[in-house]
Hints:
Number of strands of chain A: 12
Structural class of chain B: alpha/beta
Number of domains of chain B: 2
Low-confidence stretches of chain A: none
Mean pLDDT of chain B: 85
Helix content of chain A: 25-40%
Shape of chain A: globular
Structural class of chain A: alpha/beta
Oligomer: heterodimer
Number of domains of chain A: 2
Largest sheet of chain A: 9 strands, mixed
Radius of gyration of chain B: 20 Å
CATH topology of the largest domain in chain A: Rossmann fold
Largest interface: A-B, 32 and 18 residues
Distance between the termini of chain A: 45 Å
Strand content of chain A: 25-35%
Amino acid sequence: MKETGYEIYRNLGLQNLRLLVGWQPDTGKLGPNLIDYLNNELNTEQYAEIEPEGFAYLGGVHIENNVVQFPETIFKVSEKNKLLILKSNLPRYEHHTFLNLILDVAERAGEITEIYTFGGIASLISHTYTRSISTVANQLRFKEQLTSYGLETDMNYESAPEQRPSISSFLSWNAKRRNISAVNLWILIPFYLATLADPQAIKRTLSFLNQRFNLDLDFTNIDKEINNQEMKLTILREQKPVINRYLSMLERGIMLNDDESNELSEEIVNYLTMN
Amino acid sequence: MGIKYYFEPELEKPDLVIGWPGIGNVGIIAADTLRRIVRAEQFAEIEPYEFFYPKKLVIKNSILTELSFPSNRFYYRKTNGKDLMFFIGEEQPSEPDSMYAKGSKAYRLANLVLDVAQKFGCQRVYTSGAAVSLIHHTSTSRVWFVPNKPALINEAKKYKNVLLMGGSINTTGQGNITGLNGLLLGVAKKRGFEGICLMGEVPIYLQGFPIPYPKASKSVIKVLTTKLGMKVDLSSLQNLSDQVEAQIEQLYEKIPIEVRERLDQLKHTTFTEKDIEAITEEDKREIMADIDKFFQRTGGED
């Protein structure tokens, strides 16, 4: 069924659907990698797609890892788990219209009762530090439902004058206007993994979803990625004492200065990219 | 989605004064200062969601408690003389690749503003902005008077310190007004409103600076209040203008002497067409090249 601006591939009419949203790009590739993992593990099926026209820059294409990229906003569904899973590029234009279209298309699949967005936050932590998840809910009752999952639920924040709120906050606010419960989940990512992937952060988030929705997820693949990355970082620490020193400082909660942080990031990005 | 009225005041053929941000914030400072002076009261707003990205977020104890948007408010003031309406837009609805509003979003916003004007019997609208000019910051800013109907041209002659595009500024009477301050006048023309843009002069070498230029706003207010037959106290605006000029002076002193000497020539380019011609387009390009070079160098040193 093709409508203006979007296409719905399957009629669903489900009750108590939960919408999971991952944006790309994202810090530590958290959003897109998390959604890809879920789609793969849950054998989701395509539900709908929103066209990029009017929302994305269409004056050319971006190339990443030698491959042409194109903005996409794709909904998949796991009927068994009552999950609607959205992976979307961040819109460049008409944000409000775009977010409302996401909610419209989601509600065409059935009754949306909860929305979860995911995003990475670069932080001055070491990769050996347990990833914490901070929550920002749009309704107190919904936040209270999430307190038993080991999430951080005492966040206080006010954006700086030149700092624009995130698209996830905007979606959550739009959802509230429709009386839909929404929560933004912010996962801490070691700053030196911000431009790479952080499989530990993904596993931490998957664990929450697994527990929340009884998904019975298989973590084998993500564990392999974690082990692989940890092994490489261990080798790097052995090869480069200065990197080991910086990481040890972070592990002990000691702040690095700008030069040290930059050196650490550069070395780790180069090493993990090349190996 | 559209206009939200808190109440509907009874107004008699009000004039509408509009302010949006822009270079030196000339227009919004002029409109908002006048609004405060006459103690205009808010009665409506344009719902911002369609036009703007949120500007502020507040989270308390992990609850999203506030997501606020740039405001777009209407005010009114009944006076013994002319009733007044104000529209103050905190931002122009620009896209990521443009500094100013343009396209369908800007057109929709301009029409919404004029819908309110029409509803209350308004026949004339004023916008205001910056006229980037070959003047020195120690000079009084003149006001360029740009009407949307030929019949309004003669009105410019009634005011001091005012000039038209054609004649004093250039011989062709041609130019552009970027963003909503210009677009709104065009839409007003299409819809039958009288419209005038009052553009306060800002020195060409300050156009890229993120500082207000209240001296130009003051000149704009003087023209507006003359037209409206109002006497207003502009001492607070004068104080702000003095503070800004002191900041500019500090910066000016740091400019290399050879560049400053060229800029000092602009002190003599006010009020007569002959003087203006003393600075050629070539001079203008050279002055801007000198300024750009200076600030690139300063930026590098920082």
